[in-house]
Amino acid sequence: MDSLAEALGRWLAKLLRLEGPVVALLARVVTIAGALLLTVIAYRALSHLIDRVLRPPEGAADYSQKAQRARTLGPLLKSAALYLLAFLALVVVLREVGIDIQAILVSAGVVGLAIGLGAQSLIKDVITGFFLLFEGLIAVGDVIEVGNTVGTVEAIGLRVTQLRTLNGALRVVPNGELTQFANYNRGWARAVVDIGVAWEEDVRRALGALEAVGRRWAQESGQALEPPQAQGIVRFGDAEVILRLQVKVLPAQRFEIENELRRRILEEFRAGGIREPKKIVHVVQEPRT
Questions:
Q1: Domain end: 137, 163, 183, which one?
Q2: For the segment 62-72, what is each residue's pLDDT rounded down to a tens digit?
Protein backbone atom coordinates (compact mmCIF):
# COMPACT_ATOMS: atom_id res chain seq x y z
CA MET A 1 0.00 0.00 0.00
CA ASP A 2 1.42 3.38 -1.01
CA SER A 3 2.03 6.00 1.63
CA LEU A 4 0.17 9.28 1.65
CA ALA A 5 3.26 11.13 0.45
CA GLU A 6 3.65 8.78 -2.56
CA ALA A 7 0.02 9.19 -3.57
CA LEU A 8 0.30 12.95 -3.14
CA GLY A 9 3.55 12.93 -5.16
CA ARG A 10 1.87 11.30 -8.13
CA TRP A 11 -0.96 13.81 -7.96
CA LEU A 12 1.47 16.75 -7.78
CA ALA A 13 3.53 15.31 -10.67
CA LYS A 14 0.45 15.27 -12.87
CA LEU A 15 -0.70 18.69 -11.70
CA LEU A 16 2.64 20.53 -11.87
CA ARG A 17 4.27 18.33 -14.52
CA LEU A 18 7.33 17.71 -12.39
CA GLU A 19 9.49 14.62 -12.12
CA GLY A 20 12.27 13.17 -9.97
CA PRO A 21 13.18 13.77 -6.33
CA VAL A 22 11.69 17.29 -6.35
CA VAL A 23 8.20 15.84 -6.49
CA ALA A 24 8.89 13.38 -3.69
CA LEU A 25 10.37 16.09 -1.47
CA LEU A 26 7.52 18.46 -2.19
CA ALA A 27 4.96 15.75 -1.44
CA ARG A 28 6.55 14.94 1.93
CA VAL A 29 6.69 18.63 2.90
CA VAL A 30 3.03 19.10 1.98
CA THR A 31 2.06 15.95 3.91
CA ILE A 32 3.90 17.05 7.04
CA ALA A 33 2.46 20.57 6.85
CA GLY A 34 -1.03 19.16 6.32
CA ALA A 35 -0.67 16.83 9.30
CA LEU A 36 0.40 19.71 11.55
CA LEU A 37 -2.42 21.92 10.29
CA LEU A 38 -5.00 19.20 10.81
CA THR A 39 -3.63 18.66 14.33
CA VAL A 40 -4.18 22.33 15.22
CA ILE A 41 -7.68 22.34 13.71
CA ALA A 42 -8.62 19.10 15.46
CA TYR A 43 -7.37 20.39 18.82
CA ARG A 44 -9.39 23.59 18.54
CA ALA A 45 -12.47 21.64 17.51
CA LEU A 46 -12.08 19.20 20.40
CA SER A 47 -11.50 22.06 22.87
CA HIS A 48 -14.70 23.74 21.71
CA LEU A 49 -16.57 20.42 21.94
CA ILE A 50 -15.27 19.77 25.47
CA ASP A 51 -16.34 23.25 26.62
CA ARG A 52 -19.75 22.78 25.06
CA VAL A 53 -20.34 19.32 26.54
CA LEU A 54 -19.18 20.28 30.03
CA ARG A 55 -20.97 23.65 30.13
CA PRO A 56 -24.07 23.26 32.34
CA PRO A 57 -27.37 24.70 31.09
CA GLU A 58 -28.34 28.08 32.48
CA GLY A 59 -30.81 27.91 35.32
CA ALA A 60 -30.05 24.29 36.22
CA ALA A 61 -30.71 23.36 39.84
CA ASP A 62 -27.15 22.14 40.37
CA TYR A 63 -25.55 24.77 38.10
CA SER A 64 -22.76 25.76 40.50
CA GLN A 65 -21.74 22.14 41.12
CA LYS A 66 -21.67 21.31 37.39
CA ALA A 67 -19.76 24.52 36.60
CA GLN A 68 -17.21 23.59 39.24
CA ARG A 69 -16.86 20.12 37.72
CA ALA A 70 -16.39 21.69 34.26
CA ARG A 71 -13.53 23.84 35.59
CA THR A 72 -11.94 20.68 36.98
CA LEU A 73 -12.32 18.29 34.03
CA GLY A 74 -12.02 20.81 31.18
CA PRO A 75 -8.25 21.50 31.36
CA LEU A 76 -7.47 17.83 31.94
CA LEU A 77 -9.47 16.62 28.93
CA LYS A 78 -7.95 19.33 26.74
CA SER A 79 -4.45 18.32 27.81
CA ALA A 80 -5.20 14.66 27.06
CA ALA A 81 -6.55 15.61 23.61
CA LEU A 82 -3.46 17.72 22.92
CA TYR A 83 -1.06 14.91 23.85
CA LEU A 84 -2.97 12.36 21.75
CA LEU A 85 -3.11 14.59 18.68
CA ALA A 86 0.55 15.55 19.06
CA PHE A 87 1.49 11.87 19.23
CA LEU A 88 -0.46 11.08 16.05
CA ALA A 89 1.09 14.04 14.26
CA LEU A 90 4.56 12.92 15.36
CA VAL A 91 3.90 9.42 13.99
CA VAL A 92 2.93 10.89 10.60
CA VAL A 93 6.00 13.16 10.51
CA LEU A 94 8.42 10.37 11.43
CA ARG A 95 6.91 8.06 8.86
CA GLU A 96 7.22 10.64 6.11
CA VAL A 97 10.89 11.31 6.87
CA GLY A 98 11.62 7.60 6.61
CA ILE A 99 11.92 6.50 10.24
CA ASP A 100 10.62 3.04 11.16
CA ILE A 101 7.69 3.68 13.52
CA GLN A 102 7.15 0.04 14.50
CA ALA A 103 10.68 -0.32 15.84
CA ILE A 104 10.27 2.86 17.88
CA LEU A 105 6.94 1.69 19.33
CA VAL A 106 8.38 -1.69 20.32
CA SER A 107 11.35 -0.01 21.98
CA ALA A 108 9.06 2.45 23.72
CA GLY A 109 6.98 -0.45 25.05
CA VAL A 110 10.02 -2.15 26.55
CA VAL A 111 11.27 1.11 28.07
CA GLY A 112 7.78 1.88 29.38
CA LEU A 113 7.59 -1.50 31.09
CA ALA A 114 10.96 -0.94 32.76
CA ILE A 115 9.92 2.54 33.90
CA GLY A 116 6.59 1.20 35.18
CA LEU A 117 8.31 -1.35 37.37
CA GLY A 118 10.51 1.35 38.91
CA ALA A 119 7.84 4.05 39.19
CA GLN A 120 5.08 2.41 41.17
CA SER A 121 4.44 5.56 43.22
CA LEU A 122 3.88 7.52 40.00
CA ILE A 123 1.41 4.92 38.77
CA LYS A 124 -0.35 5.06 42.14
CA ASP A 125 -0.63 8.86 41.85
CA VAL A 126 -2.12 8.61 38.35
CA ILE A 127 -4.65 5.92 39.28
CA THR A 128 -5.74 7.84 42.38
CA GLY A 129 -6.04 11.05 40.35
CA PHE A 130 -8.23 9.27 37.80
CA PHE A 131 -10.69 8.10 40.46
CA LEU A 132 -10.67 11.48 42.22
CA LEU A 133 -11.65 13.23 39.00
CA PHE A 134 -14.25 10.89 37.61
CA GLU A 135 -15.90 10.10 40.94
CA GLY A 136 -16.18 13.82 41.66
CA LEU A 137 -14.69 13.57 45.15
CA ILE A 138 -12.99 16.97 44.87
CA ALA A 139 -13.20 19.84 42.40
CA VAL A 140 -11.45 23.11 41.69
CA GLY A 141 -12.54 25.65 44.31
CA ASP A 142 -13.16 23.11 47.08
CA VAL A 143 -11.64 23.71 50.50
CA ILE A 144 -10.04 20.47 51.66
CA GLU A 145 -7.88 19.35 54.58
CA VAL A 146 -4.97 17.00 53.88
CA GLY A 147 -3.06 16.06 57.01
CA ASN A 148 -2.41 19.34 58.84
CA THR A 149 -2.90 21.49 55.74
CA VAL A 150 -6.15 23.26 54.82
CA GLY A 151 -6.34 24.94 51.42
CA THR A 152 -8.40 25.73 48.34
CA VAL A 153 -8.00 23.41 45.35
CA GLU A 154 -6.58 25.39 42.43
CA ALA A 155 -5.82 22.57 39.98
CA ILE A 156 -6.26 18.81 39.77
CA GLY A 157 -4.11 16.70 37.49
CA LEU A 158 -3.69 12.99 37.03
CA ARG A 159 -0.49 13.07 39.14
CA VAL A 160 -0.72 16.00 41.59
CA THR A 161 -3.27 18.35 43.14
CA GLN A 162 -2.42 21.99 43.89
CA LEU A 163 -3.70 23.62 47.10
CA ARG A 164 -3.56 27.32 47.97
CA THR A 165 -3.29 27.69 51.76
CA LEU A 166 -4.63 30.59 53.80
CA ASN A 167 -1.24 32.33 53.93
CA GLY A 168 -0.95 32.19 50.12
CA ALA A 169 1.50 29.29 49.87
CA LEU A 170 0.95 26.83 47.03
CA ARG A 171 1.23 23.23 48.18
CA VAL A 172 1.59 20.48 45.59
CA VAL A 173 0.20 17.18 46.90
CA PRO A 174 0.77 13.89 45.02
CA ASN A 175 -2.59 12.26 44.41
CA GLY A 176 -1.33 9.09 46.06
CA GLU A 177 -1.38 10.97 49.39
CA LEU A 178 -5.08 11.85 49.01
CA THR A 179 -6.25 8.55 50.44
CA GLN A 180 -7.77 10.37 53.43
CA PHE A 181 -8.90 13.98 53.33
CA ALA A 182 -11.74 16.22 54.47
CA ASN A 183 -13.81 18.20 51.95
CA TYR A 184 -15.57 21.25 53.37
CA ASN A 185 -17.58 21.94 50.19
CA ARG A 186 -19.88 18.96 50.00
CA GLY A 187 -23.56 19.25 50.91
CA TRP A 188 -23.48 21.41 54.03
CA ALA A 189 -21.06 22.62 56.67
CA ARG A 190 -21.29 23.61 60.31
CA ALA A 191 -20.12 27.00 61.50
CA VAL A 192 -18.67 26.48 64.98
CA VAL A 193 -17.70 29.32 67.31
CA ASP A 194 -16.08 28.59 70.68
CA ILE A 195 -16.02 31.42 73.22
CA GLY A 196 -14.53 31.55 76.70
CA VAL A 197 -16.09 33.21 79.75
CA ALA A 198 -14.68 33.73 83.22
CA TRP A 199 -15.05 31.03 85.86
CA GLU A 200 -17.07 33.43 88.02
CA GLU A 201 -19.58 34.17 85.24
CA ASP A 202 -23.15 32.81 85.23
CA VAL A 203 -23.00 30.10 82.53
CA ARG A 204 -26.77 30.12 81.99
CA ARG A 205 -26.71 33.85 81.29
CA ALA A 206 -23.81 33.45 78.86
CA LEU A 207 -25.61 30.62 77.06
CA GLY A 208 -28.75 32.73 76.82
CA ALA A 209 -26.70 35.50 75.20
CA LEU A 210 -25.26 33.02 72.70
CA GLU A 211 -28.73 31.77 71.79
CA ALA A 212 -29.98 35.33 71.37
CA VAL A 213 -27.08 36.19 69.07
CA GLY A 214 -27.65 33.07 66.96
CA ARG A 215 -31.40 33.66 66.74
CA ARG A 216 -31.05 37.32 65.66
CA TRP A 217 -28.35 36.50 63.13
CA ALA A 218 -30.47 33.71 61.58
CA GLN A 219 -33.48 36.03 61.27
CA GLU A 220 -31.50 38.89 59.75
CA SER A 221 -29.28 36.94 57.35
CA GLY A 222 -31.47 33.99 56.36
CA GLN A 223 -28.30 31.89 55.89
CA ALA A 224 -29.00 29.26 58.54
CA LEU A 225 -30.09 25.86 57.24
CA GLU A 226 -31.18 24.89 60.76
CA PRO A 227 -31.76 26.93 63.94
CA PRO A 228 -28.48 27.82 65.71
CA GLN A 229 -27.67 25.87 68.87
CA ALA A 230 -25.80 26.93 71.98
CA GLN A 231 -24.23 23.60 72.91
CA GLY A 232 -23.23 24.45 76.45
CA ILE A 233 -19.87 23.83 78.09
CA VAL A 234 -17.54 21.95 75.73
CA ARG A 235 -14.37 22.08 77.86
CA PHE A 236 -12.62 23.85 80.72
CA GLY A 237 -9.56 26.06 80.38
CA ASP A 238 -7.06 27.29 82.95
CA ALA A 239 -9.04 30.45 83.65
CA GLU A 240 -12.15 30.04 81.51
CA VAL A 241 -15.17 27.99 80.67
CA ILE A 242 -15.49 27.30 76.92
CA LEU A 243 -19.00 27.59 75.44
CA ARG A 244 -19.99 26.77 71.87
CA LEU A 245 -22.45 28.15 69.32
CA GLN A 246 -22.98 26.16 66.13
CA VAL A 247 -25.22 26.41 63.08
CA LYS A 248 -25.68 24.42 59.88
CA VAL A 249 -24.86 26.53 56.78
CA LEU A 250 -23.76 26.27 53.16
CA PRO A 251 -20.09 25.22 52.82
CA ALA A 252 -18.95 28.31 50.90
CA GLN A 253 -20.29 30.63 53.63
CA ARG A 254 -18.86 28.91 56.70
CA PHE A 255 -15.76 31.04 57.35
CA GLU A 256 -17.58 34.31 56.70
CA ILE A 257 -20.43 33.31 59.05
CA GLU A 258 -18.03 32.28 61.82
CA ASN A 259 -16.35 35.69 61.68
CA GLU A 260 -19.71 37.47 61.78
CA LEU A 261 -20.90 35.41 64.75
CA ARG A 262 -17.69 36.11 66.69
CA ARG A 263 -18.17 39.83 66.17
CA ARG A 264 -21.80 39.71 67.32
CA ILE A 265 -20.98 37.57 70.35
CA LEU A 266 -18.23 39.97 71.46
CA GLU A 267 -20.59 42.95 71.19
CA GLU A 268 -23.36 41.08 73.02
CA PHE A 269 -21.07 40.02 75.87
CA ARG A 270 -19.69 43.53 76.31
CA ALA A 271 -23.17 45.06 76.25
CA GLY A 272 -24.46 42.53 78.79
CA GLY A 273 -21.46 42.81 81.09
CA ILE A 274 -20.46 39.18 80.65
CA ARG A 275 -16.89 38.97 81.83
CA GLU A 276 -14.11 37.71 79.62
CA PRO A 277 -11.59 35.30 81.11
CA LYS A 278 -8.49 36.75 82.69
CA LYS A 279 -5.52 34.59 83.34
CA ILE A 280 -4.06 35.14 86.80
CA VAL A 281 -0.40 34.41 87.29
CA HIS A 282 0.92 33.99 90.84
CA VAL A 283 4.57 34.85 91.25
CA VAL A 284 6.26 33.51 94.37
CA GLN A 285 9.57 35.09 95.26
CA GLU A 286 11.75 32.94 97.40
CA PRO A 287 13.65 34.74 100.18
CA ARG A 288 17.32 35.24 99.61
CA THR A 289 19.62 33.21 101.79
A1: 183
A2: 666 667 667 76
